[in-house]
Amino acid sequence: MDYKIVVGLEVHVQLLTQTKLFTACTTEFNPDAPNTQTQPLCISLPGTLPVLNRHAYELAVKAALGLNCSIATFTKWDRKQYFYPDLPKGYQISQYDMPMSYDGWLEVDDAEGHKKKIRILRAHLEEDAGKNIHDESGRGEDSKVDLNRAGTPLLEIVSEPDISSAAEARQYLDELRLIMQYLGVSDCNMQEGSLRCDANVNLHILEADGHHVPTPIVEVKNLNSFRNVEAAIEYEVERQLEEYELTGRKWGDPGVMKETRGFDAHRGTTFAQRGKEEAADYRYFPDPDLAPVTMTEEEIDAIRQTMCELPADRRERMKTAYELSDYDCDVIINHSPQLSDYFEETAQVSEDGKQAANWVTQDILRELNERELTIDDFPIRPPVLGTMLKKIVDGDLTVKSGREVFAVLLEQGLEGQELSPADVDQIIEDKGLAVVKDTGAIEATIQEVLARKQNAKSIDDLKGGKQQAAGPLIGQVMKEVKGADAKMVREMIIDMVQNS
Ligand code: MN
Question: How far away, in angstroms, is 101 Cα from ligand 1 center?
Fold first, then answer.
């Protein structure tokens, strides 16, 4: 069967505020001390009233601008009513028909490698609920409710159904997360629940008469990793194809409603949960406790001025400015804004982007992984690494010796020593690693080595055209002239043997 995959994503991103959306209660992630971050408003005590957190609103505007959204100059708050133990008020404060931002987009690469815009319908601000903790031990203990998270500011970002594959969904999420992280509006930490994703999936099946028939739309809820989003979409494609072949049920048939499904990460399957509520089921109405928010164009512009370069722009600029391969550039940009800053500062000192990229993507990332360090905690800072790399670029240090210097710097740094560019020179001097450019000294040593009886055979072989015979001779010279450049020694030996 010929078909198209149609996916829209709803992403909830937790904004990086110190306090909650409508009260000055801390938003710290603290699952070990449930219900300790619960001011009267969070647990909905009678008589409490919400007051908007201005910083949360500004972060939401910044995030929406990063997603190329238009910002509403007038917006309001609505109550979304539903009954659930983790929602003590019985309603969530959200935005219904007048979201604070709308009509955005972000770009992914389609299957042919072309840029494709995924449109964003809207992004609105709302408060988070608490968390129900169900007993999974099988001992039948009670379920519990932790309200630490209740009232935390979330930005809900709703895409249009423009995503046509699991791979595009993954890219959309990767890029969305990067934009949030570069802008500093969210850490998007999925383990801590700061980014959650629901996927709306259906198929448009091509019938013999040339018409596309839509299968019933399914919303897969609470996907807590990007891998799970991909797996859920892949599973739904297969499941919906099978169901369509079996039943012929399609979207728009009487009685066909949007279905909410969960995802079983162990089995890689989705399972039916409930019929989806329609907007009317939530009995939305404007929250009478909160005033609408108005924003002038000047205020929106002022926030725009505080935005940094977005990852897609930075990717293009860095590629050109430092002559990076697509691969190296992606590794750096996609890692974090901090690593991108580290790379750029290093490359500016070393005056060679390729060299800096090699070290950052290989040596630095390996050390960070093995030592479980973040780049901000890494003791060799860009001025020091850049100084060392500059010596390699200038031919004053071999790459091999560079690794030795790097190891010593790292050891000293991890011991708590404050490193400076002068330490690079000191280590090179202490270890005698400077490249010897004095060809006179090298020439004298080569003559000495060539005169050794033991080397007669190697010299004959070399004269006979056996290039590898130079190996042992180079080794002997390098042993005596520490820091000599092996390539130069090889050339000099071949030259001297041939001219003898
Ligand atoms: Mn929501």
Answer: 14
- Of 286, 360, 284, the closest CA to residue 322 belongs to 360
Least confident range of 25-29, 403-407, 455-459: 455-459
pLDDT confidence bin for 277, thresholds 50/70/90: low
How does pLDDT run across 118-141, given as a tens digit for each residue? 999 999 999 999 999 887 777 777
Give the containing element (helix H, strand E) for 314: helix 311-321
189 C-alpha to ligand 1 centroid (Å):
18
Is 304 a domain residue?
A: no
Asked whether residue 143 falls in the same domain as residue 215, the answer is yes
pTM comes to 0.84
| Distance between first and last Cα of the chain | 77
Q: Is residue 62 part of a domain?
A: yes
Q: Identify the residue with better confidence: 447 or 316.
A: 316
pLDDT in tens, 64-104: 999 999 999 999 999 999 999 999 999 999 999 999 999 99
Complete DSSP assignment for 131-196: EEE---SSS-PPPEEE-TTTT-EEEEEEE-S-B-SHHHHHHHHHHHHHHHHHHTS----TTTTSEE
392 plus 416 within the same structural domain: yes
- What's the number of domains the chain is made of? 3
CA of 336 to the centre of ligand 1 (A): 27
Q: Tell me how far the alpha carbon of residue 124 lies from the centroid of ligand 1, in angstroms.
A: 9
224 Cα: distance to centroid of ligand 1 (angstroms): 15
On average, the pLDDT of the chain sits at: 92
Considering the domain architecture, whether residues 451 and 422 belong to the same structural domain is answered as no
pLDDT at 498: 77
Whether residue 303 is contained in a domain is answered as no
How far is ligand 1, taken at its centre, from the CA of residue 92, in Å? Answer: 9
- Determine how many CB atoms are found less than 10 A away from the CB of residue 141: 10
Let me know whether 20 and 37 are in one domain: yes
pLDDT at 363 over 90: yes
Inter-helix orientation angle 456-463/470-480, to 10°: 130
pLDDT bracket for residue 490 (50, 70, 90): confident
Which residues hold their Cβ within 5 A of ligand 1, which is an ion?
156
Q: How far is the CA of 364 from the centre of ligand 1 (A)?
A: 39
Q: Do residues 281 and 211 both lie within one domain?
A: yes
Grade residue 486 by pLDDT with cuts at 50, 70 and 90.
Answer: confident
Could you tell me the distance, in angstroms and rounded to a whole number, from the CA of residue 126 to the centre of ligand 1?
7
Centroid of ligand 1 to alpha carbon of 213 (angstroms) = 29
The verdict on 356 and 462 lying in the same domain is no
Q: Tell me, in angstroms, the distance from the centre of ligand 1 to residue 13's CA.
A: 10
Query: What is the number of other CB atoms lying within 10 angstroms of the CB of residue 56?
Result: 25
Residue 208's domain comprises 3-298
